[in-house]
Hints:
It contains eleven helices and eleven strands. By secondary structure, it is α+β, with helices and mostly antiparallel strands. The chain has three domains: 19-114, Tetratricopeptide repeat domain (Serine Threonine Protein Phosphatase 5, Tetratricopeptide repeat, Alpha Horseshoe), CATH 1.25.40.10; 132-203 and 315-331, no CATH class; 206-255 and 264-308, Alpha-Beta Plaits.
Amino acid sequence: MTDIADTTDTSLSTPDNDPLAALEAEAYAAFDAGHLQRASDLFGELSGHAPHVPYLHYMRGLAHKYLRDWPTSLQHNLRAQTLQDAFDQASAWNAGIAATALGDWAEARRQWAKCGINVPDGDGPIDTDFGMICVRLDPWGSGETVFARRIDVVRARVLNVPFGSSGHRLFDIVLHDGAKTGERALNGGTVPVFNALQTLQASDHATFVAFIRCPSADDMAALEDARLPGIGYVEDWSASVRSLCLRCSYGVPHARDAPAPHDERAAGNDDWQVERSLGIGAQGKAAVERLLADWVAAGPGRVIDAIERREGTPSAPAEGQVWWCDPTEVEHAGEDDLV
């Protein structure tokens, strides 16, 4: 799916010195610079002069998608469709995204049917298995990338434990864009990365950060495999998060005052770092405390240094920010790891 409008047969066809040509160039320049409301206003002015040109409505719908103004985005994508002689995949996808955001399931289902996408029969929300993907949370901000399972064409359930400061949680259901912005390795293959547009359903599993001392990889595996009511998932952030010392950022002292505390090793585990930082998605702190206490009691050398909970709120895009077109991904297109 692409967000590039095909204007080959529907251009305003104005000469270079025509005021409408200058206005159209200004509209696209505003869009490309991330001034989305200005771009929408200019495309609206153009459509007043050329009301039957579909791509002007498409571009307004696209601008309002990135503004996350779903009623207006849906309105203009549907208007673009009524003016087109042939099926246009881009406007159908964007109309489907907007309808999904609004919970207009009948319209969303109509758009996916136009795109040739099979969804389960019914009138309400789509809830099936469309496979694994990655979603980039707050792509206009930190851009934290997590694994998720698609339950819909453009809805996915987060399966990693996001940083609490992001305002996102394990098992959140997020709306994501239809355009792939990268790939991640998974089980010997790759899965696409999509930008998350917003949280549609917040999870009841808050993020807790636990700082522990864990003697070996086997001890870590025992903790990750433990099951307890109220615990969604235990993630070893020391292994999955790059170049980050959460102990320092949370102000938690290291276990020992060693010359290289970040590289503390356990005897018999040549590459094992004893101090571990965990992300735990749980319904309450009591469940986390019980899980870790049971784990400590079951093996020697296991220590809990601290359990913390800090939660933020999801950020919003800034005016003039072209977050949907990441220049680093354009620069490195074709490499194995695009991010």
